[in-house]
Amino acid sequence: MSSVAGVTTNDGFLRRLAADSAYVLTGFPIALITFIVLVTGLALSIALLPLFGIGVFVAAGTMLVARVFADLQRLRLKPQWRKRPLYRQTRGSVWARAGRVLGDVQSWLDWVHGVFGFVISVFAFAFVFAWWVTALAGLTYFLWDWALPRTPDSHSLAWVLGYDDTAANRITIHTAIGVVFLLTLPLVVRGFALLESSFARALLTGVAEVRNTIAGLKDQRAAAVSAEATALRKLERDIHDGPQQRLVRLAMDISRARQQLDADPDQARSTLDEALGQTRETLDELRSLSRGIAPPILTDRGLPAAVTAIAGRSAIPVDMAIDSSLAEQRPEPEIENAAYFVVTEALANAAKHSRAGRCEVTMVRAMGTLGVLIRDNGTGGAHVSKGHGLAGLADRVRAAGGLLTVTSPPGGPTEIRAELPA
């Protein structure tokens, strides 16, 4: 088979077949021991329940043992499936601890897997073992046909099947059977391995995956709220420091011009000219703020054009390398906005704090991820912490389902890297 990327190689095929076979065949003795221990433990706890509650402690101990076997089964799963759930904390008195163990849902799921997983493991072991034995026996039949005793029953079986009971015919038929079982062996082994592992994943890591998903959604929602609050505070500060101050001065100029209108028309005209200039500057600042909230160029022309415009206005020379597919197949609007603001904030921070002489902006989309990298040759020292612009930026990226990392050792360089789903 070919070794080109994306095509399974012979080595990979054989490794997977060996791994699946080992998973199923070694799973049977583990499942057998687990079944015996857990069923015996629960039966013993029920029998001892009337004896001053001793059965409660035996049942709790059985659940703890079930956790050990469950951890062993998790180790046998794929690395990405090895999510251990958070069990209930066992604090307090002995009775309280036993109660928490017995009241833990995941502990009972571990027990259910240990008992009913044994049934699946028996069927999987039986079929996989039989397929391997039949395939190998059929393919090697020619080596030991001579050693098998010939009996009247074997002749009558050959007559029923419609072939002459000769060595050549027997070898042909058994070899054909071996070939059929060998060709279907990967499908059978893979199927039972997936059945066994899927059952284990559902019971032993399913709760952990749900909890992690819920925690991730909560974190994403909290990040969205934090990012929105940060953006609103920044907008309020920018309006207060810019347009609001100019509007106050504008009101004062118009009031002064009105007072000067009768006594000194020329001076009033000069004051109105100044007020007109203040109006234009205020409009420019408002346009700049509106570009920061919802830049029209990003909405109309996409991320590459918007980032190019940012770089053109930057006080530091910027080298850019942007994936052209971002213009042809645009990401979701929230992803574009997050990427845009990563670049905007990073370049603004570099201009204000880094004393950098040059910046690099790189955007690449691959395997469903949009990677954004901003690198400058400044003095470093940037970090993500509350009260800094990068903290709000990290919240914005996390709210979009991405991750922001900042690498900025003292002396530089500074690298701000965002990974966003795209």
Can you give me a brief rundown of this structure?
This protein has 422 residues and is an alpha+beta fold. It is 71% helix and 8% strand.
- Name the beta content range: 5-15%
Number of domains: 3
Whole-Å distance between the termini? 33 Å
State the helix count.
15
Count of distinct strands: 5
Topology as a string of helices (H) and strands (E): HHHHHHHHHHHHEHHEEHEE
| Coarse morphology | elongated
Question: What do you see in this structure?
Answer:
This protein is of the alpha+beta class and 422 residues long. It has helices spanning 10-48, 54-76, 94-102, 105-139, 141-144, 152-161, 167-204, 206-241, 243-263, 265-293, 296-301, 303-313, 325-328, 333-354, 389-399; strands at residues 318-322, 359-366, 369-376, 403-407, 414-421. Helices cover 71% and strands 8% of the residues. Helix 1 crosses helix 4 (105-139), helix 2 crosses helix 4 (105-139) and helix 4 (105-139) packs antiparallel against helix 7 (167-204). It is elongated.
Topology:
Blueprint: H1 10-48, H2 54-76, H3 94-102, H4 105-139, H5 141-144, H6 152-161, H7 167-204, H8 206-241, H9 243-263, H10 265-293, H11 296-301, H12 303-313, E1 318-322, H13 325-328, H14 333-354, E2 359-366, E3 369-376, H15 389-399, E4 403-407, E5 414-421
Parallel strand pairs: 1-2
Antiparallel strand pairs: 2-3, 3-5, 4-5
